[in-house]
Structure formats: C-alpha cells, structure tokens
Amino acid sequence: MRRRLRGGRHFQLAALGLALLSASGCAITPEPVTPEERSALIAADRQALFRNQEPVTGPISLEEAMARAIKYNLDYRLTAMDQALQNRQLDLSRYDMLPRLVAAAGGTARSNENLSVTENTRTGVKSTDPSISQDQERFTTDLTLSWNVLDFGVSYYQARQQADRALIADERRRRVVHSVIQQVRAAYWQAVSAERIEAAIIPILAETRQALSDARTVEEQRLRPPVEVLRYQKALIEVMRQLETVEQDLAIAKAQLRALMNLPPGQPFTLALPAGFRRDVPQVRLAVEEMEALALNRRPELREEHYQRRISAAEVRKSILRLLPGLTFTGSANFDSNSYLVNNSWAEAGLRVSFNLLNLLTAPASIGVAEAQQELAETRRLALSMAALTQVHVGYQQYQRARQNFEQAELLDSIEQRLYENIRQAQASQAQNVLERVRAAASAILSELARDRAYADLQAAASNVIVSLGLDPLPATVPSHDIKALTEALAAINADWQAGRFVPPVAEPAPAAAPVPAPAPVALAEPPRPAVPTAPAVPAVQPVEAVPLAAPAAPEPAADPVREAVAAEPASPEPAAPEPAAAVQASAPPVELAPRPVRAAGPSRKPLIADPI
C-alpha cells in the first residue's frame, strides 16, 4: 500500500511539472529592442570597426594602402571568416563517418501496480490471483553502439563535398583580395592626383574670386561699358566653376581610399609616391596565348567551378548509394533495476537489414536531378571560361588604349605648361590681362590633372589585366601579418608586375655531363651554381608635392588687374596673341573620379572659358 501511494505521488508531481512548463512556454511575448540597447550596440560597433589597427605614422605608399586594405577591409574579413567556418564544418563532417555510440538512462513510475492474470490456453481457465513481474518504480540504462554501412557511405561523400566547399571558400577569398587590390590601386592614383592638384587650385581660385569682386566694383561705378564688364565676369565665373567642380570631385577620391583601408571617417592622411611617378609605365610583355592559358589556370572563378563539378559528381554517387539496402550492426550493454528480473544486466548484439521499397519508384527522378545538376555545373564552367578569355582580350585592348591616351595627355600637358610659362612672362611686362593669366593657369592645372588621370587610367588598365589573369598580389606565405611585412611582400610582387614579370622565371635544368671513356674514374668538377636573381629594390617614396608650373605669379601690389583688363587695349594686337587662346580651347574637361573604361580622346574639346574681352 505504501509503495502504491509513493508511486501515485511521483506521478502527480510529474504531471504538475509538465503543466507548469507548458504554461511558461505559452506566456512568451515579443520584446522589441529598447533605445538604450540600440545606443549601446551602436557604441560597441563603432569601437569594434577600428579596433586593433596599427596607426598611420607617415605618408602612405601604394603597397601600404594595399596591406591595410587586405588586413582591415571588412569585406575581406567576411570572406576569411567564411573560409574558417567551412574548414570547421569539414572537421565536423569527418565525425559523421564514425559509428553511433549512444548512452541512455531513464526511470519510470506507475500510479498502481503492474498486475496481470494468466489463462490456460488448453482449458481456458484463468488464474484467480493476479501476479506481478515489474516494479512500480524502475530505472534502466544502456550503452548502444550502432553502425550503418549505408550511412557511412553517404557520410563519406558528404565529407568530400565539404572539403571541396572549403576550397571554394578559399577561392572566393582570393577573388575578394583581387577585387580589393584593384579598387585600392584605382583609388590610390586618383587620390594622388587630388593631393597634387589641390595645392595648385587654391591660389587660382583665390585670385579668380578677387578679380570677380573687382569686376563687380567696376560695374557698379560704371567705369567701363556694361557688356564688356559682364562678359568679363562671365568668363571668370566659368573658370571658377570648373575649378570648384574639380576640387569637389577630387575630395571624394581620398574618402574612397580611406574607406577601403578601413580608416575612421575624416581621419587625415597623406600619400607618398614612388620616385618614378608618371615615368614608370606598367608593362605587359606576355603574349595573348600565354595570358589565356594563365587565366584558365589561375582564375578563382574557374577553380571554384572545378570544385562545384566534383560536388555535383559526388551528389550523383550519393543518389545511387541511397538506393541500396541499409545494413546496421548493433551492440549494447543494458541494465534494468527491476527486482523481478533474474539478470539485471546483460549484453546484446544484432544485425539488421532494411530497404525502402519506394526507392524503386523515386530512383530515376533522384538520379536525373543529380545528373542535371552536374550538367548545369559543366555548362556554367564553360561559360565562365569563355568570359575569362573575353576579359583577357578586353583588358589587354584597354591597356593598349590607356597607354596611348597617357602618351597623348603627357604631350598635351607639356604644351600647356610651356604656354602658361609664356603667358606668365608676358604678364610680367603688362602685355596680358588678369583674365588671360587666370585662364592659362586653370588650363595648365586641368592639363596636369588630365595627365595624372591618364596615368591613373593606365595603372587601372594594367590592374585589370592582372585581375583577368588571376594572379595573387601576395605570396603563398609571409613571415608576419603586420603592416610592415605585408607591405614588403606586396612591394616585391608589385615591382615585378610593374616591370611586366607576371610569372617567375623557371630555372632550366643543367644538361647531363657526357661520360668520359677513361680507364680510371675521373671526378667531374661541380658545375657553378646559377646566380639567384634578387628582388628589385623598391624605389624610395617621397611626399606628394604641389605642381610648380600651375602656380601663378603674384601680381604687383600697386597694379589694378581689372582696370588693366578693361582699360589697356592695344591699338594693334601682336601676331602671337591669338595663339594662347587657341591652345586653351584644346584643354581637357574635368574627368570623372569613378573607375571607368578607358576611351580615346576626342578630336575637339570644350574651351575652358569664353574668348577674352
């Protein structure tokens, strides 16, 4: 009786606990994030964005900008973390091939005794006294080892697929590195142009604003005819508008480079240039056939499709393997606390074969889907191969066009600089007015900017060729992952690329020595070892300096530039006077900062300002 009451009490407690758990689960309500929690999260995110970054201690070279982008760029961090996740999943998938070893324990309690009666099957007489063969409360444990041969085969192919996915994650990381390096290279040369031209634009804008203010004073005092003064002001405003537009566009370049390096917004920094800036033209010395073979072998997109093809082939094998019968081996050690058992602990072993008969119906569809996926992967790989070959040819053509444009821009810049120098010397003898001098200075600045941008386009075109070939900007191993070590590694490879050495030279094997027919063995002298080519030294960097030719000469303090422009009209113009105006009309318009395809220069360009008064 006491055992019955105790079993009923345990049963009631279990039922009460289950009811309480069910009630607590139904009481959950949505809880939105509070403003305090959002503010705390935003503050923590701001600190995490720029945490553990090496500070900027001097002018940033191109290689250092690349190193900072590789180490601190968030897009690259995301792909690196995805690769680490795939590697961990690979480690986890290896354990799926092991047998299952399950330990189980539990207890049961009844509200009453498990009584039973027996019946004689021959006479049909039932026993009048019930019997019991199981305790009202009992405790059981078991340790079971099971191994399914079919699951092992499926797990094996799944592990191989996960290994290929880990390799795919590595190729995606390489692709992000190529993209980041390409963006950094383009933004760096644009930002260099900004720093070089910005110092020259400021004094020209100041002089233009002062001349415009003087012209308005002349208009108010009616010292010259209104039409002449208004044309003069219009020309000055057009010059000022173009220079301000260039100044605003150039300010975006450093912001883009700052974001790629993951520097805090608004943090000032300066750029450093190699000593051979605008003289070291990047070279492409490979034949088109060699570039095609290199692209098909090293492009990360094509390698990714190779691994996808292996994954699809493994999926077909998995579909076929699932159609086979399952063979399961089991072995267990058991314990039961039932006091009515003679043997409370025992061991079991078994063999079980199972087969799903419906697999005979679904087998053709499953295999067909897997084979269709394999054909899709093959077609996608071929399409990407064709796209890679097209990118190689297009990139090489863009490089040739960019090189030609740079040579033309360099020639035009030399003409503009000589023209400005002549106008400045003529202004010293009061032979030219303020408008002509400002116009010539602005034209010289824009031609200098056009030359820098043409060089930036040439560097971007060479970078497109490198990306289309799938070349890695970093070696396979680096001694350290700090900024200095990454910069040195990038500088060595960048110097080779700048010289057109995309593929390291392969040392040819030394020819075998001919046997000497002599009665006695003759010791052959050891051939001299070939000299190991040393990496070219990276040219020293120097801070960016302002363009000296674009800076105008300071006017004399006592001279009034507006009155000279509107009052001093020579009776007979010199024959060489119209030449500067014609040369200014050939000046380049402002060029967009965003990366764009290289295009040929047009035969005619918009004049900088209207004709002089």
Strand order of the largest sheet: 1-4-6-7
**Helicity, in percent?**
55-70%
Strand content: 5-15%
Largest sheet: 4 strands, antiparallel
| Helix/sheet category | alpha+beta
Shape: elongated
> What is the N-to-C order of secondary-structure elements (H for helix, E for strand)?
HHHHEEEEHHEHHEEHHHEHH
The helix tally amounts to 13
Distance between the termini: 123 Å
The mean pLDDT is: 76
Radius of gyration: 41 Å
The strand count comes to: 8
Low-confidence stretches: 1-5, 506-613
Describe this protein's structure.
This protein is α+β, with helices and mostly antiparallel strands and 613 residues long. It is 57% helix and 9% strand. A four-stranded antiparallel beta sheet has the order 1-4-6-7. Strand 6 and strand 7 form a beta hairpin. Helix 3 packs across helix 5. The longest helix has 73 residues. The radius of gyration is 41 Å and the shape is elongated. The N and C termini lie far apart (123 Å). The N terminus and C terminus are likely disordered.
What topology does this entry show?
Elements: H1 2-26, H2 35-49, H3 62-72, H4 74-94, E1 100-109, E2 115-116, E3 131-132, E4 137-148, H5 149-221, H6 226-260, E5 272-274, H7 288-298, H8 300-321, E6 326-336, E7 345-354, H9 359-428, H10 434-469, H11 483-498, E8 541-543, H12 561-567, H13 578-584
Antiparallel strand pairs: 1-4, 2-3, 4-6, 5-8, 6-7
Helix pairs in contact: 3-5, 3-11, 4-5, 5-6, 5-8, 5-10, 6-10, 7-9, 8-9, 9-10
